[in-house]
Amino acid sequence: VDFAGGNIVLDAGQAKTASRRIIPIPDNLRAWLSPYKGSTGKIWKGTSGKLVWEQAACAKRAGVTWHDNALRHSFCSYRLAQCHDAAKVAFEAGNSAAMVHRHYKALVTEQSAREWFAIMPPATPATKPV
Q1: pLDDT per residue over 46-73, tens digit each?
Q2: H helix runs in 12-130, sequence order
Q3: Which of 78, 69, 68 lies closest to 100, judged by CA?
Q4: Rounded to an integer, what distance in angstroms lies between the CA atom of residue 13 and that of residue 95?
Q5: SS3 36
Q6: Comparing C-alpha atoms, which of 25, 5, 7, 23 is closest to residue 15?
Q7: Is the model's pTM score more than 0.90?
Q8: Beta bridge partners of residue 54, listed in sequence order
Q9: Cα(42)–Cα(49) distance, rounded to whole angstroms?
Q10: Do residues 8 and 25 make contact, with C-beta atoms less than 8 angstroms apart?
Q11: How far is Cα 34 from Cα 125, in angstroms, rounded to an integer?
């Protein structure tokens, strides 16, 4: 996470698609990650299975149906509505522009994208999440 440069850099070995990519840090993500600025290592200390379990439990408490890769798909949909550039979204998500057009075009409005990228953490978090 490069706060100064405003990007998250994934090396090929870290990315699902085995290709390096640079992901911009929007203002709301910067706010969510700011408690970890200057830290090293993983933010989530548990196993991937525990993360999946926690996501499902949180969604259930909120009355939301959780889907695999929901955050990735949402990012692609809202980012495309925000920037109108399938090649850019494809690069950021490690996808092809054709895939972005096929699956994410016209799913959400620009207004919805503004609202999505405006979701901020509580003003005064009591503790860092684990």
Answers
A1: 998 999 899 899 999 999 998 888 888 9
A2: 27-33, 48-62, 70-83, 86-93, 97-104, 110-116
A3: 78
A4: 16
A5: helix
A6: 23
A7: no
A8: none
A9: 15
A10: yes
A11: 11
